[in-house]
Amino acid sequence: MTEAIPLSLYVHLPWCVRKCPYCDFHSLPGGDRVLPEKAYVRSLLDDLASMADVLAGRPLQSVFFGGGTPSLFSATAIGDILAGAARIGAFAPDCEISLEANPGTAEAGRFRGFRDAGVNRLSLGVQSLQDRHLARLGRIHTALDAQRAVELAAGTGFRSFNIDLMYGLPEQTVDEARADMAWVLGAGAAHVSLYELTIEPNTAFAQAPPPLPADPVRAAIEACVQDMAASAGFRRYEISAYAQDGFRCRHNLNYWRFGDYIGIGSGAHGKVSGATGVWRETRTRDVRAYLRDPHHQRTRHRVDGDELWWEFLLNGLRLTEGFCLADFHAVTGLSKTGLVERLQPAAREGLIDLSGDRIRATARGLCFLDSILAPLMPDTFATN
Ligand SMILES: C[S@@+](CC[C@H](N)C(=O)[O-])C[C@H]1O[C@@H](n2cnc3c(N)ncnc32)[C@H](O)[C@@H]1O
Ligand code: SF4
């Protein structure tokens, strides 16, 4: 049974040059000065070796180097991690191997090295193509750096690459967002991730909030970026993810479809299914402790009952394809009719489509996913 659930590997590399004021990801500044690369690679492989039982008989469908800024690591280090992983487990023949790169760290030799190490999909954090916005976002690169990095990625021969673009930026106009999109859509990427700037708690922006566009401008920007992506042949398949046919991100799809993934590295999360159910794992966020002992304060938590139900929904409703009722029942063991009943109020408001054998958020529902989910949170309903 478990063998049939796709398995992915997430590798967290938590260093950046400096911290962006909007970012709440687990990342440490100063990675350009202090990067204990060799020691960290050793810890990662020690960490992965402890998951050999999960890897047994289950070739990895995808690997994702996320951060932080993985492109601060040398190609040798990335190659060592992949070679070490291949000794512990196996890679599916068409395994997707992605790496997040910051345009401020882009060099031709480095990109070629990543490609030669086995990376076949690069994800570039462009964020904006206007210097005033990049400066406001605390980015370490200019618009020209971003354009050069994209051109470099396009010329390096990765199977495909993604561009992350943010919108709804402080004082952004619709024309500025349109200009960003026009450039991004013509840059040769097969995938774009379009993120509306959110002010996350515990960030510098939360302490001193920047002036965001007024609601009507924000809505007009959102409509503009979504329409432009669709007209250029990028199909929206998740709230923020758009791809040309055949180029959806296999790794992220596996999360949203409730597949399994091993997460290694300081602060990484994983989810694995086994004979005893579904388990979530976390690794310590204390990087020094992780370097000393990657097993330090590792937690393992069984996901069942309401939590399982909730997590399945939280992921499946992000996808425009939604999820299949039969899969919901197979994973959670809970009743299909119980789920349909709970979702009826959102369906009556036109936020959820319950008409077929799949359940999906409507286009309007995708805009209001939080309000669909809020009344359904686990402590507000009894187990089926
Ligand atoms: C973990 S970051 C990795 C990329 C890389 N570190 C970089 O910034 O170039 C993944 C993406 O999440 C998006 N992101 C991070 N924080 C965000 C926020 N508060 N609001 C909207 N998007 C955000 C950015 O587009 C970013 O590229
Ligand atoms: S470079 Fe990326 S991960 Fe690092 S602080 Fe900025 S947004 Fe966060």
Q: In terms of topology, how is this protein built?
A:
Elements lengths: L6 E7 L23 H13 L2 H4 L4 E8 L7 H14 L2 E11 L6 H10 L3 E7 L3 H6 L6 H14 L3 E8 L6 H12 L5 E6 L7 H4 L7 H17 L3 E2 L4 E3 L6 H7 L3 E5 L4 E6 L2 E6 L4 H6 L6 E5 L1 H12 L6 E2 H8 L3 H13 L3 E2 L4 E4 L1 H5 L1 H5 L11
Helix pairs in contact: 1-3, 3-4, 7-9
Bound molecules: S-adenosylmethionine and iron/sulfur cluster (SF4).
Any idea of the CATH class of the largest domain?
Answer: Alpha Beta
Instruction: Provide the low-confidence segments as ranges.
Output: 380-384
What's the CATH H-level superfamily name of the largest domain?
A: Aldolase class I
Figure out the total of helices.
Answer: 16
Helix content: 25-40%
Number of strands: 15
Distance between the first and last residues' Cα: 23 Å
Overall outline: globular
Overall average residue pLDDT: 94
Provide the domain count: 2
Main sheet properties: 9 strands, mixed
Percent strand equals 15-25%
For the largest beta sheet, what order do the strands appear in spatially? 7-8-6-5-4-3-2-1-9
Known CATH architecture of the largest domain? Alpha-Beta Barrel
Provide the gyration radius in Å. Answer: 21 Å
Identify every distinct bound molecule in the structure, by name, code or SMILES: S-adenosylmethionine, iron/sulfur cluster
Helix and strand content put the structural class at alpha/beta
**What name does CATH use for the topology of the largest domain?**
TIM Barrel
Summarize the structure.
The chain has 384 residues and is α/β, with parallel strands linked by helices.
Question: What features would you describe in this structure?
Answer:
This protein is of the alpha/beta class and 384 residues long. The chain has two domains: 2-253, Alpha-Beta Barrel (TIM Barrel), CATH 3.20.20.70; 305-376, Orthogonal Bundle (Arc Repressor Mutant, subunit A). It contains 16 helices and 15 strands. The structure holds S-adenosylmethionine and iron/sulfur cluster. The site of S-adenosylmethionine (SAM) has 16 residues, from strand 2, strand 4 and strand 5. Iron/sulfur cluster (SF4) is lined by residues 16, 19-20, 23, 25, 27, 67-69, 102, 125.
